[in-house]
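User: I'm preparing a small set of examples for a lab meeting where we compare how different chains pack in three dimensions. I only have the primary sequence for this one, and I'd like the structure in token form so I can line it up with the others. Please keep the answer compact; I'll paste it straight into my notes.
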Amino acid sequence: MSVTKIPVDGLSGGEGILSAAYAGVLETNATFVDQAIFGASVDGQAWNGKWSVASLYSSLMLVTIEDAGSDTQVNIWDLTEQSGGAPSTTPLGTVTLSGDATPTSVAACMGYIIVGSEDGISIIDPHSGSWAERTTGWPRSLSTSTTPALTDNDVLAVAAGFSDAPALDPRTGGDMPCFLVGYGTGADVLSLLKDDGNVWDRSGTVNDETGIGIFDGHIYGPRYSDARLCRSDNMISTITADDWSNDDVSFIDGGPQYLGMDTGLSFGSNGKIAAADAGGLSIGLRGTTQTAADYIWAATTRTYNTGYLVGDIRGAWLANSKTVDRSYKANTLTENGSITEAAVESGAELMGYSGFSASNVLVRASDGDWDAVGTGSLSVAFWVKMSSSGGTPNLVSIANSGNSIRFTTYLSSGIVQFQVDGATATDNMAGISNIADNLWHRVDVVQVSSTERYIYVDGVLEKTSTTDTGSLSDSGNLPLAIGANADGSTDPASNGTLALVRLSATAPSATQIRQMYDAEKPMFAANAECLLQSGSTDAVLDVDVDPLTGKVLVTQTDAITIFDGLAVDSKPTVNSGNSEKGKLWGDLRAEQNSANAYVTAPAVDQRQVNEMVRGLASDLPAGVDLSKAKVLVQVTSPTTINFSLNVKSITYTSTGRYVVTPAIPFKSGAYTPVGTVRGSNFGNVLTVDNATPTGKSIQVFTLRSDTDALVDANWGLAVFGELENE
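Assistant: Understood. Below is the structure token output for the 726-residue chain.
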């Protein structure tokens, strides 16, 4: 690698240097189809402890596929190589897939590249000494005429990722990936190429949805012939037959609501999801329970940004419109009088709404979407800026004519008040912060049930209540108002400006509320952009969530936009022609357009990179040698033993609790455990109780990484020490 050596941190020479920033065209070609960034840096695992092998591959690479007429050309590029401020234009490898005349998609993991086309899928890797198509062993190229077979050769989309309990790959010394195939025709929607060499199929009526993925040990993809996003009920390790069951987790015409995924789907850390569609961009967050109600999405077009829509959304108002409901419920407001619309801050794209008075207010008649809640969940979220603290301005209110049934949020002396009048009791809660400071604040009032309520201001919990108010139902008699009491005139918010009002029959969690606040706050800054930046279309061609930063790269034909949270971070210029695809890795960006493949990369502190590489390459804590373990066990949740060594029995005592009894106990009860847990919402959280060891048994606990709660999971354990017979 050619670098410009610049001393940093008082160091000189090769130990502390900056590799120069670079940008340039990899290849001029109008026939690129798709691309993917991959490599050991992305996988977080070294391939047999190697990061670069004699110009064969590097730690960070880009794969591009091109339509070469009757064939598909695959090129692998080194993203760490540059000279004179320009990227290397010599591929690390080039593979021609003969007869694959219509390539559609590419993905990669652990050095295995999967390419979809009209002839099935092709697998390419470097693990035998050169980049070549793999037709034997596993994984390998498949079609309807191979064994195992695909159910159709028309492959529209491909994805690659890890199972929750991956098999060991002897070629790399790391985890074996799984692959997902999305079909364009035929009787099946998806096929899972599992890491054990099996292919399992999901039947259904196909459509043109290309949003598929493998993430957190689950399969994501379309549901039959509609645009629902589904997630497999079971983790991949437990799928052993065709037609696995699914959860519907997102809908265009239902909650959780998003705009669709007909051109792409991407996953990032901390639950981030992004979906690309002809209708616009959706940025989502997965919750902790993985149920449909626990997914939240923000929908963005050139016209509006909804902010996050929570679960069973019932209304999304004041999103760059005085009256339009941006939720699928279409609960249009009526503007009584004249409400003022203006940018929330100077030059911002998001609009705020003010001028409320006894005769200027936004109202909606009683509706079944909120007038029959009973004792269930109901939540309201909005942003407000108050210039003074006088009176008791109502902000969002639902109530009958006598206020005997009421769900309202107002201010008193600038402090948020949340009043619920149910069939049996009244609960009037008060927050803490005085928000009448002429600054923007996000307010969330949440009823989980008739006996559980919360107030949050700027993502922070301020008040809780367990008063049993009884039912909130009064069918046909609960109108809604924004900017005044539900009667449409009294207690107007005359000194306030409101934006992004959302009503939901789902109660968001404290974590979600904090995440939503952090993501939405940048929209309320001066000159903040938060809409799609194309000059001609809402269509999003590609979307990519950066695994390092969580930023979202959005590709439209005439615009490239990077979102940080729900606001625009930057707008790179399209290098040439029309933009088609884009990928992010930190500040490195790969662009595919109608004229070329282009890459731009930042200057890098090489010392920091070297330390990261050394840390990842170690794979295991120093000194751990599994060949010297005296007890080995792997369990698939909750009770399936995949393999064991020196184990007499494993007793599953309760959720997340196990007792492992060695066949030969440890001498004097002294041992050292090393364990890992895999699964949705789990980090490497496994604890062993050896505070008072006996050596006769080992207490094992599997915990959620986000809550520390005991929960069933797939786990493995290696125990070191001296056995009694040694």
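A couple of notes for your slides: Residues 606-617 form the longest helix (12 residues). Residues 1-16, 619-623, 680-684, 690-695 have pLDDT under 50 and may be disordered.

User: Perfect, thanks.
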